[in-house]
Amino acid sequence: MSNTETAPTSGVTYWDYIQLDQLLSLQSPRTTAHDEPLFIMVHQTFELWFRLAIYELRGAIAALESGNIQQGIVLLKRVGVILRTAHAGFDPLMTMTQNGYAEFRDALRPASGFQSSQFRVMEILLGIRQVPSADDSAKEQFHWEVVAAQAGETFVNFMARYQQELQAIYDQARSNNLRTLMLRLTEEGTSKTGVDAYRYLGSHRSELPELAALADAGRDLQTALLDFRLSHHKVTVFTIGDAAGTSDAHTPVHSSCAGYLLNVIKEQSTIFPELEAGM
Known about the structure:
The protein is mainly alpha-helical. It is built from 14 helices and two strands. Strands 1-2 form a two-stranded antiparallel sheet. A hairpin with a 7-residue loop joins strand 1 and strand 2.
C-alpha cells in the first residue's frame, strides 16, 4: 500500500447507513425529457416525507392513548413541520411548464398522484370518516371511492391495489384516530360532549392549558395538510392545465383533474369539525 492510500476501517459508513447507493438507483425515467427526473425525485421525496409523517403520527396517537398529552403535542407539531417541509417540494415543480410536462406525461399513463396510498393512510389516522354510498345509504365508503366507481384505469388500479389494505387500517383506527382521541380527551377534561367540549375549552384556555395546546396543534396540522392540498391544486393548474382530465379518464362530476382536486379541498379541508365548530 502506498503512503497516499488509506486502509478502510470497520464500522458504519454514512453511505451504508442511509443506503445511499440503493436510494440513488431508484430513479428510472421512461423518456429522455429533461424534466422527468425532476418529477420523479420530487414525488419520491414526497413519499419519504409521508412515511415519516405517518410514523410520527402513529407515535402521537400512541402517546395520547397512554395519557401523555405533552408528548402527543410535541409529535403532532413535528408532523406539521414535516408536511410543511414536504409542501416546499411543489416549488421545483412550479418551474416546470405545461410543455415540459407534456414531453413525458404520456409515458406515465395511467399513473397519477391520486394513487399515493400513504396520503390516504394519513387521512385515515387523522380521522376522516367514511360517507354513505350514493348507491346504498346503508353502506359506507371512502370519499375517493365515489370517483373510482365512475372513472378509468387510474382509479380502478388504485382500488385493486390498496382498497382492502386501507379498509383494514380504517377499521383498526375507528376508536384511536387523532380526531377521536382529541375529542375524547377534551370531553374528559371539560365534562362536556362534542362541540360543547371545545366551546368550553375555548373559553377556559387558561384553566386547561394542555388541552388548549393539543387543540392548537391539531388545528395547525389541519392547516398544514390544507396548504399541501392547495399547492397540489396550483401545480396541477400550471403544469397540466385547468381543464385537462386525469391521465386516463375523468368523471362527469369532475370535468378536470384540477376540478377534482378543488372539490376534495372543499370537502376534506376540515379534519376536526367539532373543534372548528366549537372554537
